[in-house]
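Lecture 7, part 2: worked example. A protein chain together with nicotinamide-adenine-dinucleotide.
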Amino acid sequence: MVSRVIPVETFDLVIFGGTGDLARRKILPGLFRRFLAGQMPESSRIIGAARSELDADGYRKMIADAVAEFGGEESSNTKALQTFLERLDYVAIDAKGDGGWADLAKLVRPDVIQAFYFSVAPSLFGDLAERLHTNGIATEHSRIVVEKPFGRDLASAHALNATLAEHFDEKQIYRIDHYLGKETVQNLMAIRFGNVLFEPLWNNHYVDHIQITVSETVGVTGRGAYYDRSGAMRDMVQNHLMQLLCLIAMEPPGEFEADAVRDEKLKVIRALQPIDNHHIVRGQYDAGPDSQSYREDVENPRSFTESFIAMRCHIANWRWAGVPFYLRTGKKMKARSSEIAVVFKDLGHTIFEGDEARHRNILSIRLQPNEGIDLQVTIKEPGPGGMRLIDVPLDMTFADALGDDAEEVPDAYERLIMDVIRGNQTLFMRGDEVEAAWRWTDPLIEGWEARNDVPKLYEPGSAGPEDAMMLLHRDGRKWRDIKG
Ligand code: NAD
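Predicted complex, written out as structure tokens:
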């Protein structure tokens, strides 16, 4: 099989914060891979713009080092890397002042696709948007890419939307959530809307419940100050998990087009019911035999911030009435794993005598590691001795099923950047979606902050606090094992 590389038009991509951690670790190594895949027309340019006083050669050197460190195998292609680096330029710029803007104006061409990636602190988004206009750089066709976090509550997200809207139309704004750029996430839509098998079962007649788990093994070391002000709800649930929930639960859009898809996702968020306290479990990791506790990691001995959260949600519409959606995410868990599991209902009646086990079909969609899909089906246990049933997976790990093509699958950031260049907003969050998500999470957060709710401690390397297990046990269900 040969992957199809869809050509893109010539572009100027300006990366504000081009010397930062995200640019060096993800954005530029990703762009180099797209360059290798032939998706960077010869006259396209990438312009780093940041505070450091560098010249273009200094920046190329920095990016050569970054690609060597974070770029994987491809970085050994030194000849190609050299050609890629020649397309890089750099401007030292002050987002809050006048320095560098005239130089940037000279570099950005008005007659090619212009994209401006705001890979800087959100407090600078407004300054950048304004200066792109006052310096006559942005046009009505320019696109801006905005990193997360997009606000920390409804009020701040609304204010940020309003600021960006002063200078850019919604069609020009690409709010990035790298989860949406993952191959499997897009496959969710292909599976649901490209097969006749699943859609008829995708409702409360056949689905018992759905579990969404995003677990990490790392703690918060390194970004403790930011994390302690956010917690798992703001950092993971409000964006990534809710986006996954939307894709799983949404109605089929009329067409595969950005606003059609986003309209349907928005309806899901709006249909989410408020959750009461009994259906939320917040946790904080404890110290382990050779690791620090959360509070030690964030250097805040009185922190009430959650590094784990589990919750039971309901969507108030005809399709999902009565079907719980269990969400959980946490740090310092037993394995790094992201999975969506659609657990189907029991058979109404079993014809197999003596078969007491409950056999359920489970469709599991793995986002990481080993992106893939498996469907648990029930078969006869091989061998003599009557009709005994066992459950086996119909497993499709993309790397196995697609061979070399799977290796060529672009990583989330590079795919999303190419979507920006192509002008495709399907995998980016619209302003009203982000606000609707905050509208749902705000009262929950305000509730536990007002109560000074203390998160339950959990052992590092575990599946979270005991109470999270109870959340499902009480409903006669259990969490799927977290496997790395
Ligand atoms: P960073 O601190 O490593 O880099 C910040 C960049 O902004 C630097 O290039 C710096 O020169 C530039 N900058 C700072 N002040 C400036 C100013 N006044 N004028 C011009 N440039 C200025 O930050 P980062 O980790 O790369 O994160 C960038 C953005 O991406 C943030 O919004 C962050 O929340 C988001 N993000 C980062 C990650 C990650 O893995 N690092 C992941 C998700 C989202």
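Residues 17-23, 50-52, 93-96, 119-122, 124, 147-149 surround nicotinamide-adenine-dinucleotide (CB under 6 Å). Residues 169 and 452 are 40 Å apart (CA to CA). Keep this in mind for problem set question 3.
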